[in-house]
Amino acid sequence: MYQVLSPEGFAEEELDPRLLLSMYRDMVYARVLDRWLMRLQRMGKIGIHAPSEGQEAAGVGTAYALGENDWIFPLYRELPVFVARKVPISDIVNRNLSNRADPLKGRDFAVYGDIKYRIVPAPIPVAVHIPSAVGFALSLKYKKLSEVVINYFGDGATSKGDFHEALNFAGVFKAPIVFVCVNNQYAISVPVSRQTAVERLSVKAVAYGFEGVSVDGNDVVACYLAAKRAVEKARRGEGPTLIEAVTYRIGPHTTADDPSRYRDDEEVEMWRRRDPITRLRSHLLRRGLWSMDEDEKLWQTAEETIRKTIEECEKNPPLPPESILEDVYATPPWHLIEEREEFSQLR
Ligand SMILES: Cc1ncc(C[n+]2csc(CCOP(=O)(O)OP(=O)(O)O)c2C)c(N)n1
To answer: How far does the signal peptide extend, from start to end residue (predicted)?
Structure first.
């Protein structure tokens, strides 16, 4: 398994300090925002949240390998990717609150996406976005654009036919795509050992004629370098890569799950000791690029900034009920126009 940062924060390869500090900042913001979204759900202010705690290196590292014109087909647990793409925190919060400033107007569960940032909203059915991502990548190739697609999914998705059909097609037609399988060890309560008999999910790429690589998903530098290589290869027209980022979901599957029913505290504790944020911090401290004072300030600023952003977002009014009738037809048919009229008379 490809690793650059050892668990103690040693590295043979010394990446640019500015890049490391920027990734560190984004990982901290993603962690703090994730915890706030959990709290908001518990306060009854948002419907559901799929937490990303523990998966920050996999998301941030791979997203940093993209150019700004590249396209993201995420899963629903990709908050760190959105933070790395510099989506404003207010957009993510408004989305979750489903208020009038929600860029998706209350549609589609709690997943985020926005064409402005070239992020396609994640689907809830497992793996169905993989064929779409491949089709989209092929359209970029036919249009002779130099843009590439990055497509995130979980270990559970590798058991669906969609995954195999899509990877096969991508291999045959050399689609400009990077598949990132975020192996967080579980598909809700099903451990990866019940999902597959292979040791590493990356070997599945071999059957489709392209390269697969497993990386330490808690090592942001390894995730970044592996993704950068894969993105450059796709951009050169040399086809897809499957990256398996081996990591762990520290929290529940979603706010509607109780993981204590299917896994031990010791296992969670073992993975907490491999925390991706702590690992990068150890590296930064070792190289004298960071101090504990600066660290404390960063966490405090993240907490304050996000708290204030949430307060501001909560001032937005709710969506008008008739908005559920919008965005299906370019020219709404008569019955929807009548329904919209009825809705507005109710208010
Ligand atoms: C086709 C389908 N079957 C079942 C579900 C219920 N379901 C929602 S998420 C999930 C597990 C997905 O696990 P994985 O792909 O590993 O991603 P993770 O949530 O762990 O990040 C399941 C079974 C679903 N959404 N779609």
So the answer is: none
Stretches where the chain sits below pLDDT 70 are 110, 347
Residue 196 three-state SS: coil
52 lines ligand 1 (CB under 6 A): no
**Residue 10, domain member (yes or no):** no
Tell me, what's the pLDDT at 347? Answer: 66
Based on the domain organization, do 245 and 347 belong to the same domain? no
Dist. CA 40–CA 93, nearest whole Å = 10
CA pair distance 213, 243, nearest whole angstrom: 5
Torsion of CA 293, 298, 304, 310, to 10 degrees: -170
Which amino acid, residue 255? T
**Is residue 283 annotated as a catalytic residue, yes or no?**
no
How does pLDDT run across 291-318, given as a tens digit for each residue?
A: 999 999 999 999 999 999 999 999 999 9
Same domain, 308 and 326: no
- Distance from residue 190's CA to the centre of ligand 1 (Å): 10
Which parts of 98-157 fold into alpha helices (H)?
129-142
Q: How far apart are CA 32 and CA 307, in angstroms?
A: 10
Range of the structural domain that residue 337 is part of: 321-347
Q: What is the pLDDT of residues 101-145, one digit of tens each?
A: 998 888 877 689 999 999 999 999 999 999 999 999 999 999 999
Cβ 51 under 6 angstroms from ligand 1: no
pTM of the predicted protein model: 0.96
| Residue 262 among the catalytic residues | yes
